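Bumping with the actual sequence this time:
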Amino acid sequence: MFPSPMIFSSAIICLFLVVHRVRRKSSSDISFPPGPKGLPMLGNLLDLKDSQLWVSFSQWASTHGNVMYCKLFGQQIIVLQSYEDAKALLERRSGIYSDRPPISSTKAVGSEFNSAQLRYSNEWRLHRRIFHQSFRSEAVKDYLPIQLRKARQMLQGIIEAPERYQDHIELFASSIIMSAVYDYEAKPTNDPLLLAAEKAIKVFLEVSSPKTAVILEAFPFLLKLPSWFPGARFKRLAIQSQKNAAAMVNIPFNYARERAMTATSNQCMISESFKRLDTAGSNVGEFELALKSTSATAFIAGVETTASTLGVFILAMMLYPDVQKRAQEEIETVIGTDQLPTFEDRPSLPYVEAVLRETLRWHPVFPLGLPHYTAESDVYNGHYIPKGALVMANIGAMAKDEVKYPNPENFTPERFFMANGQLDDDNVDFIFGFGRRVCVGRHFANGSLWISMVSLLATFRFMRPLDNEGNEVDPVFQWSTGLSSHPESLPCRVVPRYPEMTAHILADVIGRA
């Protein structure tokens, strides 16, 4: 009356095979998104003809569309070219797209502290809570006095040594985040903590570029070669990165922790976080490690984005003197000539606000952001997106969208004004990422950028360099490559807006504020 075990087992196997064939058939009907054909093993490596990956991806899009599929050394990659597609996947389907790729080389290069690279996990959630407490939109208002003070220190440094303007911009970016995170007052020159941090960031950005990360994941033996071995460049970089990162993470944290524990610290990320230690919801050791990691991550992110964006701003002011002049006339009309702008003036300076937005759009300094990673497979617009794929939002391409931003290569702040003369609601937020992985420090960065830009515009003119005959020429420079993109060694003539403005008079103006 009952089937034998053999017949029953055979039926189960047949049923499994039928289901498997149906699944294979249904999945075969769904193709990957279009993309360039690659080679075995290498994938599309040889198709990346530009040192800046986002440019190559943008070129592919003209043939393959806004959602593309490619491979690098076997790693499947989905590239999102449009803002709409990035929103649809990275935000509306954030449960699938909020992870980061597993990177086995993080410990070898000393970057295991980096909150931005953490997998989507409880550890990441703890880091995110710490960040949110210190850098949410309401909390960053407490840092406005620090940002204003550091901006004015930058002005004093530039007026005393205008030929070293880039050094002073980098010092502003470093010292402002050092104060906000660690309550550390950096020395104006050769500060040991800042020098150590700058070394760490330079190497970190090189080993963290998407291309390098994929190579190291595909060929992990490169990090096991002896450092003296010919061609062991990645191994030498990893050793240097690990050493530099340890100093950057531990030294300023230990300084700030001691001050917080002895109640001698002013308000900063470390001191405020220790005040919440009793309600942290985790053991002390776990919380301190997370705080050490988040503070170092905040420093890296804050320094690189601010300094790089200000470099783009200086370039734009040189190349578009009419924009610079209009912004300066607005400042003079609202502020006058005998004082410097403050944050209270921000609502009255809409054109300066548009200049900030256009700077962010014109050349995003992190044109590919950091890769997302699919926690499970997905289907989007009839195309199959596999589990375990890197998903990259091409922010650089979104900023050059000719429909949304006509003539995108031009620096045109006027594009952010409506017909009635009011600013529109496009804050170019996409440059800070998407979904649950959006940059949590974006409000702090926005404040630092605005006060530095408006202060520089109020005080200086940024002009093209001169040739041997005294004629203005376009600046000659190179864009950095890797994770970030900014003008390197940018020549510029920086002169006071008013001939009578000297370092002594500027100090008096600052002192009267």
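The tokens above came from a reply further down the thread. The radius of gyration is 26 Å.
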